[in-house]
């Protein structure tokens, strides 16, 4: 294990004895001491925009979009697992490593695009929160300011553990989608048939497939998990358990996406109603005739609210961490606001306030969501490229990928980049 002095400005490695997973405390260690960063970042990955994309997939293409969600599981895992090793072994955040390895200019490019994607994500999340409020007759002028104040207050408590636990708690509201899936009574034979016959020759299907890809790998996920394992004080001895945390989160988040696809496919899609479902109200309204007011309104409202809240927490923290690392600001959720951490917390607060103001100003949320997905696709070469290069350069040899694992990871990331870039002209309307 690296000594504290070898981990730059982050003296965050606890004594070895605290991390010995023996005897009766094994389960407690795995669930509460190590697990968290991977689970919370994956719950945030299934955010409001992703859920709307999944709903649209089920409405237009039924069960044909189930298999791609399964394929995305290993891609999610291999990308986020690298961040675990980078954070734990080096004790440095993503932007810090980019600055040290490639210079401040590239770090600024990386952090700048990160912050833009965070603002875009927050707009989507606040729009989702506002949509849930409207479902129950509550004005956005109440739900958006209240949620903004709660999110700001959470970060100001000076405890990473508290932020993580609240994030997981609200994010688990997404399990409501599993209940909705059961209530939709999907036919297993139809699901299998849809999975085995993919319309890959249809450009509309491929474009929506690319949108699902853009909704899975987001820049702020990488920044968040790498910073989270540092703030959580994880050491090299628990990397295996941190990988389990990440793997479980990757499986759970994609199963949630599948639950949404199946719920819509078995109801709206099965009855030939392929009209666009681009908001919380439209999704709930389309489901209500089949699932009733509880299934269509309460379950989807609860799931969407949990998804939007946890994504708001994760994306904004990631953006503040990234900029703080580039400019050398002191940053940690384990420290209350002070003169030393003022810039970090001000950045976190600014992201929320900007997102809230723009949503209340009634910006074109649907058009914005498309723009954010296009931007995420454009960022894939930069984000994944830096991640792979850092894995090869910043880690000691014993912690780098080798053999088949290395080639599989590079292949998956390369295909992801190529697929995302290929469909940018379609998304922009340049190619039809």
List the main descriptive attributes of the protein structure presented here:
mainly alpha; Amino acid/polyamine transporter I; 73% helix; 0% strand; globular
Structural account:
- This protein has 432 residues and is an all-alpha fold.
- The longest helix is centred in the last third of the chain and has 48 residues, at 280-327.
- The N and C termini lie far apart (54 Å).
- The relative contact order is 0.20.
- The chain has one domain: Amino acid/polyamine transporter I, CATH 1.20.1740.
- The chain has helices at residues 26-34, 37-45, 48-61, 66-90, 94-102, 104-135, 140-155, 160-171, 176-183, 188-196, 203-214, 219-231, 239-266, 280-327, 342-360, 365-393, 403-422, 424-428.
- 73% of the residues lie in helices and 0% in strands.
- Helix 4 crosses helix 16 (365-393) and helix 14 (280-327) runs antiparallel to helix 15.
Can you tell me the CATH superfamily?
Amino acid/polyamine transporter I
CATH architecture descriptor:
Up-down Bundle
CATH class category name:
Mainly Alpha
Structural class: mainly alpha
Q: What overall geometry do the principal axes of the alpha carbons give? A: globular
Q: What's the topology here?
A:
Layout: H1 26-34, H2 37-45, H3 48-61, H4 66-90, H5 94-102, H6 104-135, H7 140-155, H8 160-171, H9 176-183, H10 188-196, H11 203-214, H12 219-231, H13 239-266, H14 280-327, H15 342-360, H16 365-393, H17 403-422, H18 424-428
What's a quick, concise take on this entry?
Helix content is 73%, strand content 0%. It has 432 residues and is mainly alpha-helical.
């Amino acid at each position: 294990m690296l000594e504290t002095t070898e981990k730059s400005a982050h003296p965050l490695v606890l004594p070895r004895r605290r991390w010995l997973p023996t005897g009766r405390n094994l389960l407690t260690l795995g669930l509460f001491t190590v697990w968290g960063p991977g689970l919370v970042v994956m719950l945030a990955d299934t955010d409001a925009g992703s859920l709307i994309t999944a709903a649209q997939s089920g409405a237009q293409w039924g069960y044909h979009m189930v298999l791609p969600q399964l394929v995305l599981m290993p891609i999610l895992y291999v990308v986020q697992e690298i961040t675990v090793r980078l954070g734990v072994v080096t004790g440095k955040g993503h932007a810090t490593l980019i600055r040290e390895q490639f210079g401040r200019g590239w770090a600024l490019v990386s952090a700048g695009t990160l912050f833009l994607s965070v603002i875009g994500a927050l707009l989507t999340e606040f729009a989702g929160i506002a949509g849930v409020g409207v479902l129950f007759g509550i004005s956005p002028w109440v739900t958006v300011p209240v949620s903004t104040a709660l999110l700001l207050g959470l970060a100001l408590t000076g405890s990473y553990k508290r932020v993580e636990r609240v994030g997981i708690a609200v994010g688990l509201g997404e399990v409501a989608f599993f209940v909705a899936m059961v209530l939709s009574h999907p036919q297993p034979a139809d699901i299998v048939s849809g999975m085995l016959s993919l319309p890959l020759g249809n450009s509309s299907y491929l474009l929506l497939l690319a949108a699902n890809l853009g909704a899975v790998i987001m820049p702020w996920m990488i920044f968040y998990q790498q910073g989270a394992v540092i703030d959580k004080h994880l050491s090299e001895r628990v990397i295996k358990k941190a990988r389990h945390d990440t793997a479980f989160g990757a499986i759970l988040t994609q199963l949630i996406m599948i639950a949404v696809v199946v719920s819509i496919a078995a109801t709206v899609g099965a009855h030939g109603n392929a009209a666009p479902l681009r908001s919380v109200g439209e999704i709930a309204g389309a489901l209500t005739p089949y699932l009733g007011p509880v299934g269509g309104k309460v379950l989807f409202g609860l799931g969407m609210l949990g998804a939007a809240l946890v994504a708001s927490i994760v994306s904004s923290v990631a953006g503040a961490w990234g900029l703080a690392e580039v400019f050398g600001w002191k940053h940690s959720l384990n420290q209350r606001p002070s003169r030393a951490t003022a810039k970090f917390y001000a950045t976190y607060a600014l992201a929320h306030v900007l997102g809230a103001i723009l949503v209340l100003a009634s910006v074109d949320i649907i058009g914005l969501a498309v723009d954010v997905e296009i931007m995420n696709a454009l960022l894939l070469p930069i984000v994944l490229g830096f991640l792979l290069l850092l894995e090869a350069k910043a880690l000691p040899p014993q912690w780098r990928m080798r053999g088949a694992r290395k080639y599989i990871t590079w292949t998956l990331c390369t295909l992801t980049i190529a697929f995302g870039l290929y469909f940018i002209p379609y998304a922009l309307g340049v190619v039809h």
